[in-house]
Amino acid sequence: MRTARPRHYLMCRPTHFDVVYSINPWMDPAKPVDTQLAITQWEKLREVYLSLGHTVDTIDPLPGLPDMVFAANGATVIDGRALVARFRDAERIAEGPAYHDWLRDNGFPDLRTAHVVNEGEGDYLLAGEWLLAGTGFRSDPRSHDEAQEFFGRPVIGLTLVDPDYYHLDTALTVLDEQTIAYYPAAFSPGSLAVLRRLFPDAVIATAEDAAAFGLNATSDGHNVVLPHNATGLTEQLRARGFHPIGVDLSELLKAGGSVKCCTLELRTAAQSHDPA
């Protein structure tokens, strides 16, 4: 039996969403973006979370920061402590202070901005007692030591090798404390061996489902919210006893983001022992 547990999420309405620069292979400024459609799709995701009993806070979007909708990148919050992101790309640097201020003003006084490049839950995913940490394209590998010292939890470094999957949360999702799903081709041979050793019963995504951003998902231990067109992954999850819920975030995918990218989990000390 899978058990759903209430989550506390932070999201950012895509009021200023657009693709005006390219910092990952999914972004093409030459392709038109429908901001209103992006808002409608985002609102549907928020409604799904609320219908599942989760708490959803929102941070005000700032003009000139079209990627601020991807709240997962803003910080990592575990045990009530927040390590705020330090972005690699100049276009996103101002997002860090915005998330820092929101967390400070909303009950997270124990916080620090990362000293080296660290793109929040884009590259940091809590799996039981382990903090899975991605590197290769965005977060600096030195940030793994910083995160381990800050959170006092063992950090498992994982190297990404396919630029289409530039953040860990595009190639791996945590389903519960013991179960993950991931796309093997996104990882270096050594990192893949680590994943196989730590999670021998993992759900393995196909290339088609990974390309649909099916792994950019959220789970409360039972309900898994993921892109609706990751159909093979949906069937695998259902067979494992999870309840997959498909949503359409196709407009946001034009910037290389989907469900998880839009969702930063705010974990208190008690909640940090639940699946991420």
TrEMBL record:
Q: Which GO terms describe its molecular function?
A: amino acid binding; dimethylargininase activity
Q: Does the keyword Hydrolase apply?
A: yes
Q: Which SUPFAM superfamilies match?
A: Pentein (SSF55909)
Give UniProt keywords alphabetically: Hydrolase
**Pfam families under this entry?**
DDAH_eukar
The protein's superkingdom reads Bacteria
Which residues of this protein are catalytic?
167 (proton donor), 261 (nucleophile)
GO biological process: one example: positive regulation of nitric oxide biosynthetic process
Carries keyword Hydrolase?
Answer: yes
| Entry-linked PANTHER family | DIMETHYLARGININASE (PTHR12737:SF9), DIMETHYLARGININE DIMETHYLAMINOHYDROLASE (PTHR12737)
The family line of this record is: Belongs to the DDAH family.
Q: What is this protein called?
A: Amidinotransferase
**Species classification:** Bacteria, Bacillati, Actinomycetota, Actinomycetes, Kitasatosporales
